[in-house]
């Protein structure tokens, strides 16, 4: 019987972009149990809804997360629009979808870079971030912000994208597509990547379903689960198909994201081709009264915004269930039984975003 | 507009474990557990789904009530139940992993139940 | 075969231009819609305080008596909601960023003195 020791991992660790603390119970080099602690960046944004106008709160909802920011604001807007019965014009829905797909591309490229960095593949890291910069440039040119877009509002969007700019965006995506395919090929075939990630941190399909894994973590385990297939915003008209991989190890979670970048490029191209004309916002009158659970697919997985309002300017309760939060139990399961040296890579593959998880 | 189907079923606190067990045998996954403070009482929603037809069990509790934990059925439920305990100060019994208030370590204990005082920024800014 | 790819990549990296901008020498990228910092045309301001009420980060303080408009640059999140709600459209977003600082940056803008009140002339028809 060997002795057990506890190794603290985080909240500050070179591989972690955000503060999560794990107490790893080790037996020799093997992790027996992992106990997560969060709470280092709790800002109480859910509580702030009681102090701010529900229309201004969109901008705060967007700042829940620094990466999947736009999707948060759209989901919050969806919830309010459903409660108030506002019909958002189709052009606004399509442009929202385009921006959501852009944020998915930039989030996934950021994550792919971080993963490459975590396994010491510096060249791939810089390559991925260089591609991400191209995406961010288009985001800033259309919305005014690189990662915090702030262009969604209750009832529509704040800024329109002119048709010429939409054409330029598609041309730009076409020009970087070969580079994205090249980086995808490296993640799929490169020996370094395969060696580091194949068979590591396996989460079976049943476990993923039972523990409530969402997003690429679930799709990497073969669960066909993607809120975009319910067709919110304009996804219903774009013909969407979820990407799944069967093995449930780190490499498959990585490949899901890598493939989704290319799928996002396709979605943007289809959305631009079908772009309707018309107004971009609907007038909002009165205050919301009622409750709604709005779901959306963020780069990290399924996200839920629950809004309960009572006909006043301030909302009673806004509850956000972010994908990272629900991915923590699967992470704890994945960590049990792996080597200490593999912990950073496995933690990274759920794409932890603690700012999101704590709000 | 795309409506996602969502049924809310109000149940008594004592039925919760039985109902959760039923959902588990039917193959539902746990989507979320969320708490809503409504003045003197709290509403807790337990959302389950198989595909995209969501179903929520809703229980109403008061300060000092004990909520049974469903983490015996759904292993991953501990994260939500600890969150409810840490933010709202409600006690959840028999959790499989009980952090005893250390999952979300905030400076102000139970910040959503006893919110810290809000200060209004005066002229000249407050950055020192 | 991988060797050729590698040599090609290496040559391209040696001979090509750097992918990054040489920042202080070359100015940072900017677009017309970029949100850089907030400015006010104080002569049009009516000191209604709408921007202060809607500011999500409480960065703006408007004083109607002293006719001042004050912004805390470190609190401001440049969301642009003040520019949207301004009834006189006198708040703008400039695309260039505010210079970095090491201490609190609170900018006070003093408005012009209030125009003399137009006395209501009692119309007398006699």
From TrEMBL, chain A:
Binding-site positions, Mg(2+): 46, 320
Residue span(s) of domain NADH-quinone oxidoreductase subunit D: 120-283, 287-359
Taxonomic superkingdom: Archaea
Recorded GO MF terms: ferredoxin hydrogenase activity; NAD binding; nickel cation binding; oxidoreductase activity, acting on NAD(P)H; quinone binding
Cofactor(s) recorded in Swiss-Prot or TrEMBL: Ni(2+); Fe cation
PROSITE patterns hit by this protein: COMPLEX1_49K, NI_HGENASE_L_1
Sites where the protein binds Ni(2+): 65, 68, 353
Residues holding Fe cation: 68, 356
Keywords on record: Iron, Magnesium, Metal-binding, NAD, Nickel, Oxidoreductase, Translocase, Transport
Assigned protein family: Belongs to the complex I 49 kDa subunit family.
The protein's name in its UniProt record: Nickel-dependent hydrogenase large subunit
UniProtKB/TrEMBL annotation, chain B:
Stretches assigned to the NADH:ubiquinone oxidoreductase 30kDa subunit domain: 28-94
GO molecular function annotation: NADH dehydrogenase (ubiquinone) activity
Top-level taxon: Archaea
Name of this chain's protein: NADH-quinone oxidoreductase subunit C
Species, as recorded: Methanogenium marinum
UniProtKB/TrEMBL annotation, chain C:
Organism classification: Archaea, Methanobacteriati, Methanobacteriota, Stenosarchaea group, Methanomicrobia
InterPro entries found in the cross-reference section: 4Fe4S_Fe-S-bd, 4Fe4S_Fe_S_CS, NADH_quinone_OxRdtase_chainI
GO-annotated cellular components: membrane
Pfam family, one: Fer4_7
PANTHER family: NADH DEHYDROGENASE UBIQUINONE IRON-SULFUR PROTEIN 8, MITOCHONDRIAL
Domain 4Fe-4S ferredoxin-type: 36-65, 67-96
Coiled-coil ranges (or none): none
Any GO molecular function: metal ion binding
Identification of the protein by name: 4Fe-4S dicluster domain-containing protein
Keywords in alphabetical order: 4Fe-4S, Iron, Iron-sulfur, Metal-binding
SUPFAM superfamilies, alphabetized: 4Fe-4S ferredoxins
């Amino acid at each position: 019987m060997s002795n057990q020791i506890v190794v603290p991992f985080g909240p500050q660790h070179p591989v972690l972009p955000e503060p999560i603390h794990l107490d790893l119970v080790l037996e020799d080099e093997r992790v027996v149990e992992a106990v997560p602690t969060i709470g280092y960046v709790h800002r109480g944004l859910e509580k702030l809804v009681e102090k701010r106008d529900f229309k201004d709160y969109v901008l705060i909802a967007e700042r829940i997360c620094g990466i999947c920011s736009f999707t948060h604001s759209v989901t919050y807007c969806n919830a309010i629009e459903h409660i108030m019965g506002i019909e958002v014009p189709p052009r606004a829905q399509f442009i929202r979808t385009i921006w959501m797909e852009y944020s998915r591309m930039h989030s996934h490229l950021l994550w792919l870079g971080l993963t490459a960095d975590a396994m010491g593949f510096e060249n791939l890291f810089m390559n991925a971030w260089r591609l991400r910069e191209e995406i961010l440039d288009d985001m800033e040119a259309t919305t005014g912000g690189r990662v915090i877009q702030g262009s969604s509002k209750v009832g529509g969007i704040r800024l329109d994208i002119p048709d010429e700019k939409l054409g330029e965006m598609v041309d730009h995506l076409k020009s970087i597509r070969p580079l994205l395919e090249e980086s995808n090929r490296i993640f799929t075939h490169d020996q370094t990547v395969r060696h580091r990630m194949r068979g590591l941190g396996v989460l079976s399909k049943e476990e993923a379903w039972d523990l409530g894994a969402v997003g690429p973590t679930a799709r990497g385990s073969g669960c066909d689960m993607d809120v975009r297939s319910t067709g919110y915003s304009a996804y219903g008209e774009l013909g969407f198909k979820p990407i799944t991989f069967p093995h449930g190890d780190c490499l498959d979670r990585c490949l899901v994201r890598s493939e989704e970048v290319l799928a996002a490029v396709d979605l943007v191209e289809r959305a631009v081709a079908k772009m309707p004309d018309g107004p971009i916002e609907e007038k909002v009158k009165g205050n919301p009264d009622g409750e709604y659970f709005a779901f959306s697919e963020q780069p990290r997985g399924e996200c839920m915004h629950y809004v309960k309002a009572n006909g006043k300017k301030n909302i009673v309760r806004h509850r956000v269930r972010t994908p990272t939060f629900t991915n923590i139990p699967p992470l704890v399961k994945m960590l049990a039984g792996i080597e200490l040296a593999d912990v950073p890579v496995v933690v990274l593959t759920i794409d932890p975003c603690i700012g999101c998880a704590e709000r | 507009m795309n409506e996602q189907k969502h049924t809310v079923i109000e149940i008594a606190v004592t039925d919760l474990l039985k109902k959760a067990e039923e959902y588990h045998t039917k193959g539902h996954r746990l989507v979320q557990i969320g708490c809503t403070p409504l003045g003197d009482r709290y509403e807790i929603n337990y959302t389950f789904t198989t595909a995209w037809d969501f179903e929520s069990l809703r229980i109403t509790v008061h300060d000092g009530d004990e909520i049974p934990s469903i983490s015996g059925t759904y292993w991953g439920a501990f994260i939500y139940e600890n969150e409810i305990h840490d933010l709202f100060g409600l006690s959840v019994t028999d959790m499989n992993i009980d952090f005893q208030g250390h999952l979300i370590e905030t400076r102000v204990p139970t910040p959503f139940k006893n919110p810290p005082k809000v200060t209004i920024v005066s002229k000249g800014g407050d950055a020192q | 075969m991988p060797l050729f790819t590698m040599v090609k990549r290496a040559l391209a990296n040696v001979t090509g231009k750097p992918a990054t901008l040489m920042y202080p020498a070359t100015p940072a990228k900017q677009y017309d819609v970029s949100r850089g910092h907030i400015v006010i045309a104080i002569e049009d301001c009516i000191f209604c305080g709408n921007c202060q009420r809607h500011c999500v980060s409480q960065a703006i303080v408007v004083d109607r008596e002293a006719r001042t408009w004050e912004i805390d640059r470190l609190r401001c999140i440049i969301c642009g909601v003040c520019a949207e709600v301004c009834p006189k459209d006198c708040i703008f977003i400039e695309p260039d960023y505010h210079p970095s600082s090491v201490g609190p940056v609170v900018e006070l803008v003093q408005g012009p003195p209030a125009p003399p009140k137009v006395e209501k002339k009692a119309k007398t028809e006699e």
